[in-house]
Amino acid sequence: MIGKFYERPGSLSKSAFAGCSPQGIRLAVRDHSKIEEIPRGISETLLDKELKNFQIARKGFTQKIESFQAAQAEKKKQMFAELEKKLKTGLEKK
């Protein structure tokens, strides 16, 4: 492989030498100022966005379930109170 030149469009110069050396492959960058344009902060990936949307939807669904369960518990409580009231009035009549 000694003597072969590799070039990626826009990234390496023709003087980039690729060979088998103890240091590995040597590459030269044509426009090193492009390195400065690489964002340094951690950008939010699509997977992160989808995960957040799922968590928000899951939280909303959980809240719906909790409110439904609370409403059912209240209905059950009222139903037993009404049944108890009817039983008491039925016993008082006898």
Which labels suit this protein?
mainly alpha; two-stranded antiparallel ribbon; 1 helix; 51% helix
In short:
With 94 residues, the protein is mainly alpha-helical. Helices cover 51% and strands 4% of the residues.
Write the SSE topology:
Blueprint (H helix, E strand, L loop, with lengths): L3 E2 L11 E2 L27 H48 L1
Antiparallel strand pairs: 1-2
Q: What does this 3D model show about the protein?
A:
The chain has 94 residues and is mainly alpha-helical. The chain has one helix and two strands; from the N terminus they run E-E-H. It has a two-stranded antiparallel sheet. The longest helix is centred in the C-terminal third of the chain and has 48 residues. The protein is rod-shaped and about 105 Å long. The protein starts with a strand and ends with a helix. 0% of the residues are buried.
The run of helices and strands is: EEH
Give the total of beta strands: 2
In total, the number of domains comes to: 2
The average pLDDT is: 79
Please count the helical segments: 1
What distance lies between the first and last C-alpha atoms, to the nearest angstrom?
108 Å
